[in-house]
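Changelog-adjacent note: as of this version, every example in the card shows the full chain rather than a window. The one below runs 510 residues end to end.
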Amino acid sequence: MGKNYNRREFLHSSLLGLGSLFVINSPIKLFANHSYNTTGNQTDLNRTIDANLLNKQAKEFFYKKKYAEATSIYQQLIALFPDRISYYDGYARVLGAQQKTLDTAELYRQGLLTNPDAPLFMHRLSMRMIDLSMGNKKAELAFVNKYGENNILEASALLLLKAIALKQSNKGLYLNLRDILNIIDKRNKALTEKGEQLLVFSDKLRAEILSTTSVYESKWVLTRQTQKKSIPENAIDAEVVNLINKKRRELNSTKEKEEREKAIKKEKKLRWKLGLEKNIINANPARVEKFGILILEENIMDTDTIGKLRKYYQKNKLKNRLLSLNRYLYIKNNSLSNSLALATTLCNYGDNKSDLTEANHLLSSLTPYVNTLPSVSIGAYYQTSAQLLKQLNQPANARTMLLEGLSKFDGIGGVSYSLFEKYAQSFSGKKMSIGIDILKALCGKEVKPIDDPVWNYIKAYLQTQKDKTPSVAEQLKPLYALAKLQNKAGSTEYALSKSEIETLRSKIYK
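Full-length structure tokens:
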């Protein structure tokens, strides 16, 4: 490794050994053919005009992925205007597109050497050094070996501290500085899990960073710690409009146009997701529905959004909105799963005969395809069919339907348990005791064999549970169902079940 400097020397060291980074390979026609006025001011004006045209040309070359041509122009622009950081930034994009992280860091290091008191050059070099530390290990080692700085993240922090001292009004500098501590902590956590040596970072420098950035700490937590874009809820609509109407350069290829469209859709969805999540927290059903539907209009198969909407509506007992959502999904895509979801909602929340008629039609259309459904959906189909029959005052037929469902699983597994619960709840009047005994058996209590076809399935289920140690939550589930049915039947054992539930709950919340 080369000579080691202390950090202060590193930040102020010259690049005597580096040589000139910018070599003019060939004259550019705009400069070669233009005749300048002899007055200094006019010459500067002409140069500015030419520079703008050249910069535009360089950008066009970059967009067309003609990196050699773009490089030639940017090198000459920087040679002529070494204090204009926008040209360095343009050249850095060209280098970045070619994965030349080391060259990008050296570019800004040369710029800082030429402009030693410019805070923006300090900022750019600091960011590129951070990129080196997080990305290409080979490039990082090359930079360290070349310039003798062993702790690249500490050097980056010192650069940003110096930049802030020169430009205290730039909020971005503070947020970038605070990011360094987060990078250190995340990397050390990963290294700890691997059992590798941790990164060293000065406690004194850490304290200085926290003190310097304290004024923006809440902003950093909101926008940087979670890496989520922070947009005020009432500004989301305007953000999306601006995103759609933003003026953009003309694209040359179909592929680029498709990529841009994809990127715009992604950004719109990001904003709508923020709106959805914020309004779920703020309990605003109308806005939840609005943002949810906007997302689904772009992608009707967005299962994450569908799940969030259903969960929110069910939790808050918004049955009409749940019914509207499932009907919307069915109309847009009448898949088997959407048909079943709508049928289930109509059975559970429909309030008139036509709802049950519609549910019956949907279930009938599903019948030929039941065995092609996932296990959970098969269980849902039989439960919904039984629920429909129960509401039509056909409890015996409902139990027959549930038995058919149990036969699909031989009474084994979690889906079978759900079918047992529905079966037990189908009894009424004097026969309610049969349902109570079924639930007692599921709770692991001793009961006499039940004179009912379901008993063989229950025995098979209990046999598979015999050697398992159920969790408290698993013990509570059948107890809740048992207590509910006992209470409905007016059983004196309800109080015992309730007491048992409280004892188990105390284990969870102690």
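Structural remarks: Confidence is low (pLDDT under 50) at residues 1-40.
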